[in-house]
Specification:
Shape: flat
Radius of gyration: 21 Å
Number of strands: 2
Low-confidence stretches: none
Order of helices and strands: HHEEHHHH
Strand order of the largest sheet: 1-2
């Protein structure tokens, strides 16, 4: 039984690598063989498309559905790995794994947003005009919705200076990251010890 679970876990890892390669190739203009891209698309797009239909996974031009898809596969892989290693799995361990996967996705998003806002703050402090390049337009399309929501939370209907809004947003996301990390660590420990 352990060998079967280990084999399934191995194939899930391979599929996750294929999905990752497919995602990476969409970031670049590819001039190679389209047969390779077509084969990758046929293997991965049915699974990825299932997650693309969830609109809350899109923030402006940023599509987080591949991260969610990989997160689910990672959870399934952990279940099979645990079964291979221990021969059994409890509801508490599954709940702890689900929470860890969810935290992995949330921590990635928070970290990514903090980096984007720090880049935008550096550009603002250097008094650069970032609107001329595609890179900065993408940075702005990601950062502006986040800035708007956080500034509305802190300043309500008052208008805050742009630099102040950036600093408040970075600090807020950083505090949220630390608090959620502590809570998740405590809860996963509690769940893993559940007797059932």
């Amino acid at each position: 039984m352990a060998q079967v679970m280990s084999t399934i876990s191995f194939f899930i890892n391979i599929y996750m690598m294929v999905i990752f390669i497919r995602i990476m190739l969409t970031w670049f203009s590819w001039t190679g063989s389209s047969a390779l891209l077509d084969a990758l698309a046929r293997m991965t797009d049915p699974y990825l498309n299932w997650f693309r239909r969830f609109t809350f996974l899109r923030m402006g031009t940023l599509d987080l559905s591949p991260i969610a898809a990989l997160g689910v596969l990672s959870l399934v892989n952990r279940v099979f790995s645990s079964l291979a290693l221990y021969g059994h799995i409890s509801v508490g361990i599954i709940l702890a794994m689900i929470l860890q996967i969810a935290w992995g996705i949330v921590s990635f998003i928070l970290g990514f947003l903090i980096i984007i806002l720090i880049l935008r703050l550096i550009c603002h402090l250097m008094r650069k005009n970032p609107h001329g390049t595609a890179f900065w337009r993408i940075i702005d399309s990601i950062s502006q919705p986040v800035l708007y929501r956080i500034n509305r939370l802190f300043f309500k209907d008052r208008i805050a200076q742009y630099g102040t809004g950036l600093i408040i947003s970075i600090l807020s996301l950083g505090v949220a990251y630390l608090v959620i990390r502590i809570i998740v660590s405590f809860m996963t420990g509690m769940m893993a010890r559940l007797p059932f």
